[in-house]
Fold these 4 entries.
Entry 1:
Amino acid sequence: MGRTYGDLKGVTIKLSPDQKFFREIENDCSLLLVDEIHIVHEADQMYLSGTHFSVDYESGDISKTQERGQIYFSTKYEQSYFEGDE
């Protein structure tokens, strides 16, 4: 499942239908039905990709757009934990 992102290697996890989930896109409040998780460990980045839906919150309408969407995250190492540590 390795994949190359530019010069960086990463991992792509394809979700099964029962693993998919919705995530709100903060800048326009649309929705992304996530079907892939991409981890680019060398760059400390992760992104979610999937089907993009526009949402009209006033009328309650949700419509699928033609393009796929992505949400990018920067990851930061916080700490390690090992079983047996107290």
Entry 2:
Amino acid sequence: MNEDNFNIDKFVTECTNYDLPDLIDFIEKRHEMANHHSKSLDEYQKHNRKAFSNFALELLFFLNTGIKPRNMQASDFVKTKPIMESLVRKGQLKAAILEYYQ
């Protein structure tokens, strides 16, 4: 598995291409892939996958509940804004969700 698949910024860009139901499936699959550890991973790769896994899990929580994740770092939460903006433009989320980013 290419470790680039666990780059949060690239992941966010990919997420903007999906409609909500497909997005949830996509995030779940990537979360599952991040948690599949190979014995050949070094500590840096393990750390990146763990960070990615946590990000994906918190993003899923936010998408499923509309509640801002308490455990997500503010710097990571801001990264989710393009995803929410994309879903609002597509009419799949209400614009009120963007108030979390103010």
Entry 3:
Amino acid sequence: MANRYVFRLSEDNFSVVVIDELGPINTWSTDPENVCLIFESGIVDATGNKFTCHTGPPNNATVVTLHGAIWDSEVDDSGDATIELGDGCTPSQRWTLIEKQ
């Protein structure tokens, strides 16, 4: 069964939902949809002590990075977030893990 992580971003009133699919490909999406990100879902690269949420193939362009987020993160953990592909988003934010299932 997949694990679901909900990261609340501090400035733009939306969450990034990361799904650990327990396999080689993990996914992300926004809640609610139609926020200031240019892409609203894609693939997660969970290497290097961060979650890099990108568009997936063919470009794998980074959309948002949750610095310090790891699979062992617990509710109320927080860290810096960087928005790379946004339209009106605040580029530097804080994330807080608000839900883990």
Entry 4:
Amino acid sequence: MTNDQIQTLADIQRMALISVPGQTGQQTRHELNTFTDGGAWSAVGVYDSSNAPLYYSRVSIEADGTEMPKPGDPDSPCTLSEQHTQLAEWIAANRQKVAA
């Protein structure tokens, strides 16, 4: 995994922990699983109060840094940068309105 990938993962984690609940009022999970061969995957899910999924994406990262979408899911982002962008767009589209 490269330093840029590590930084993008940290940015995704920050959005999942701070931006999603703070700006949308929804709960979120960011799972990062690593494997003994050096590979990993990053999964981000946003859920409503009844735990129904509102957004989900998963990106696989191979030991050599190659990124690919969740197998069998053509709508899944292909890179961590795409996962970051999609989550940011979801947050922007689902921000709670603040009363004036």
